Amino acid sequence: MEKVRYEVDPHNRLVIKTTARKTSLPRFRKVLDGRFKVANDNTLAYHVKAPIPDDIKAPHQVKLRGKWSLTENHDLRLTLDKWRRQTFGDQLTLQGDIIDASKNSLLFAVTTRTKGNTQSIYTLKLQGSWQADRNNRLFFRVKREKARYDILTFDGIWKIGKNNQIIYQYQKAQLRRKLKKIHTLIFKGYWDIKDKTRLSYVIDRNTDSVFNFKTSLGIFKDRYIKYEIGIGLSRKPKPIKRTITLFGTWKIKKTVGLIFEAEYENKKIHDIVFGTEAKLTKKDVILFKLRNNINREIGAQLELSHKILRGDGQAFLRLLKSKRESAILVGAGWGW
Question: Which of 112, 226, 327, 336 could form a disulfide with 219 if both were Cys (CB 3.0 to 4.6 A apart)?
Fold first, then answer.
């Protein structure tokens, strides 16, 4: 029986090769004119446009199943599964650019060339969720059949932009000019704090698209929240240290609790909500011991002057004064 092997040429066209069973020498090698497509289950197929000669046994659609990954150059790679006419471990590398990181998908642009030497660009869309690994690197979890997943790891440094959004950039050489171009991905979401040493960036609260970063204990001040974080890269012996500083305004709301208002793109405000145990100290300074939404302490304290709190804050200050040395629980199921 002949063995069929697949590869991808520099123009992202599928190449088919066959060899006899008893030899590794190719019987033929044919570049197929067509395009790749990704199905809803993230399987890959190649739709052949040009007719295939009768002596080449290949369908007009080649279905390709395997494991997705991301190369060091930020190209998509599919390592093919073994089946009776395919050599195990064949790797198909699609060269292109990641052009969008939506809440539950990744969009990849591919450039190809037809038999008539016409160049065109099309996109491939993978479905899944965005998460962070134990080294605080970003990764995309590609959903597969039977509750299985493939991991596309972004092995680079990410940063925080002026709108409190996560930004990931990578350099890539252009094939023709060999010039390096910087590609930028902006993740639209909001920050949240639920645990002692974890800072979360929520992209879609209805799915698993959440970056949960391991951090040191946070520092909470009257105008900002600050965390130290380490990002471990495969090519670096030690984690790259970064400081995440969220600037905003503290308020206290009678029906909610203590909130930190941070500003995002287009001046949109999103609140980080805390439960808290509050106590009045000297000179009308309020000491807050912060808790999450299930009444668990997050190992952080905050001191705010009565001048900082407005609106409901003034009524809350009067209530604290009336309680003298007593502490008041706010939020996480308590009113005041």
Answer: 226
CA gap 317, 284 in Å, rounded: 8
| Residue 151, SS3 per DSSP | strand
Give the CA distances from residue 317 to residues 43, 283, 304, 328, in Å, rounded to whole numbers and listed in that order: 60, 12, 11, 11
CB 74 within 8 A of CB 152: no
Residue with tokens 């029906």, as numbered in its chain:
255
The residue written with tokens 């909470």 in the block is: 220
Taking only the tens place, the pLDDT of each residue in 122-144 is 999 999 999 999 999 999 999 88
Residue 45 bridge partners (DSSP): 37, 63
For residues 222 and 285, is the Cβ–Cβ distance under 8 A? no
Nearest to 8 by CA among 120, 155, 111, 123: 111
Q: Which amino acid is at 4?
A: V
pLDDT over threshold 60, residue 85:
no
Question: From CA 99, how far away is CA 77, in angstroms rounded?
Answer: 16
Identify the bridge partners of residue 158 per DSSP, sorted by sequence position. 168
Q: What is d(CA 90, CA 96) in angstroms, rounded to the nearest whole number?
A: 19
Element (H, E) at 61: strand 61-64
